[in-house]
Amino acid sequence: xxxxxxxxxxxxxxxxxxxxxxxxxxxxxxxxxxxxxxxxxxxxxxxxxxxxxxxxxxxxxxxxxxxxxxxxxxxxxxxxxxxxxxxxxxxxxxxxxxxxxxxxxxxxxxxxxxxxxxxxxxxxxxxxxxxxxxxxxxxxxxxxxxxxxxxxxxxxxxxxxxxxxxxxxxxxxxxxxxxxxxxxxxxxxxxxxxxxxxxxxxxxxxxxxxxxxxxxxxxxxxxxxxxxxxxxxxxx
Length: 236
Known about the structure:
The chain is of the alpha/beta class. The protein has helices at about 5-15, 25-30, 40-50, 70-75, 110-120, 135-140, 145-160, 165-185, 190-195, 205-215, 215-235; strands spanning about 1-5, 20, 35, 60-65, 80-85, 95-105, 125.
């Protein structure tokens, strides 16, 4: 069962997922054993206040929101409630998501395994200390945006070289997908994989030289750092 305030959202959910729908979040909390609160941070507390009386000690509350700590949720619904803070990313929409999972002390091992299984069905997940949530947001939660920019830039370069735009996106995106898969499946260091592509005096090392001159890696690190700092600021 799902709830939303907008008729348009409810209609989309109805057509896509064929689940029970309501505009009453209390009804969802009353019905469900596992409650996923996935709303914008600016209305998060409002929604929690609305449903808190329907949450007993046996229900599991899964939170998805930047800046909303387990402690802040406990202040509203109670320290005796079962809470798991998660941070998925948008590739979950295509089964290639990355999700961090941080439970509070009331979650049992079996419950944690069950919830991890849910998020593993959307890609991959890891159980991490909540203190690492800011690094998670920088590394996977927001990094899809940097990657989309990277793919777009590669495609622009291919278009400059005469390739059709649609083909350029396909070649660039598949290149990034394949590279990511090699990191995950080979277990090799990214630098080692990079070296495997860089033939002496070849095309790739020439491109790498330019990226180093333009401080590509430094810019990415600074971007992640800025993302992490913003996440910390939102959690205050």
